[in-house]
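User: Can you recover a sequence for this backbone? Please restate the input before giving your answer.

Assistant: Of course. Working from this structure:
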């Protein structure tokens, strides 16, 4: 059998070479994140016509030209594995045991969801990752920056400074290599997620980690009752897909924290369950459940992950950040 087809640009054409795409249109496409033929080929006509301010017929023509200029095919497992090993970056969580649980750390091109009760360590890990992402790749970082969308007022720059000092890093530099903003409602939160692309494309910031703490806080408070559930899930689905697009298109890590609820019909075991429904649960690549353990420790349970078994580990939250529990 053959080695599998690769997705290649047959004519080696660029966006500007597409009939009907001039300099002004190309600029609009670039500002909207359409940087190559593949991004155009997988776009929807509605999305594209709004971007360039043209008719749906023109948008369809551009998409069809982009698709015909690409050879769509499959790749063999060896090639896929090589690409993944070359591209995926794993950001250390600060604890060897937690890294082991995650298969090496928080991964780029993926969404990692952590849910748990108040004080379980979700936000502490977010602060740790905001520092660790700045480390060189060979030191467990991604040589990049973090963006934090704060929906609950939990962001503490002083803790970032403290963690950086605990790792003998330049604390002021660590603060400068970080962006944080407060989201005041779900619409604001969704807009802030969409604007992250501007930080990458227009401001040329090396964003490698996006933190949303917590993802569901505003959605939970604004959509009350079963009658609003469908509308909430539709908005949430749109929000999640913006984050997924960022993760895959720019090879960055998405770290989201989530709230919990107690299931009253659970008679055996832990009744704690994450909110957000199937929309969120299926979108998350890695799902972890944090809870308090004995003697001030925290317990992390891997609930869902591709090709990884469910397992647990213990870690600690110290004044220097996340560490192994001793």
């Amino acid at each position: 059998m053959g080695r599998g087809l690769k997705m290649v640009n047959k004519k080696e054409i660029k966006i500007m070479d597409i009939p009907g795409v001039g300099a002004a249109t190309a600029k609009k496409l670039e500002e909207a994140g359409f940087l190559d033929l593949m991004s155009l080929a997988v776009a929807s006509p509605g999305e594209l016509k709004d971007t360039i301010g043209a008719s749906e017929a023109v948008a369809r023509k551009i998409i069809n030209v982009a698709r015909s200029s690409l050879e769509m095919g499959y790749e063999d497992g060896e090639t896929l594995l090589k690409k993944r090993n070359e591209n995926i970056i794993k950001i250390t969580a600060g604890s060897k045991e937690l890294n082991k649980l995650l298969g090496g750390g928080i991964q780029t091109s993926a969404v990692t969801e952590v849910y748990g009760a108040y004080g379980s360590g979700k936000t502490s890990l977010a602060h740790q990752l905001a520092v660790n992402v700045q480390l060189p790749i060979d030191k467990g970082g991604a040589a990049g920056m973090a963006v934090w969308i704060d929906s609950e007022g939990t962001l503490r720059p002083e803790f970032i400074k403290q963690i950086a000092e605990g790792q003998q890093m330049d604390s002021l530099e660590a603060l400068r290599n970080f962006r944080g903003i407060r989201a005041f409602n779900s619409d604001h939160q969704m807009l802030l997620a969409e604007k992250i692309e501007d930080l990458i494309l227009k401001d040329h910031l090396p964003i490698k980690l996006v933190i949303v703490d917590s993802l569901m806080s505003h959605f939970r408070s604004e959509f009350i009752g079963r009658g609003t559930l469908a509308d909430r899930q539709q908005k949430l689905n749109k929000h999640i897909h913006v984050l997924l697009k960022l993760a895959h298109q720019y090879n960055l890590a998405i770290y989201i924290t989530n709230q919990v609820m107690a299931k009253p019909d659970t008679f055996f075991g832990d009744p704690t369950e994450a909110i957000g429904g199937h929309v969120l649960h299926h979108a998350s690549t890695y799902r972890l459940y944090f809870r308090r353990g004995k003697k001030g420790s925290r317990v992390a349970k891997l609930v869902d992950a591709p090709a990884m078994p469910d397992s647990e580990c213990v870690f600690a939250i110290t004044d220097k950040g996340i560490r192994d529990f001793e």
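That completes the design. Residues 1-11 have pLDDT under 50 and may be disordered.
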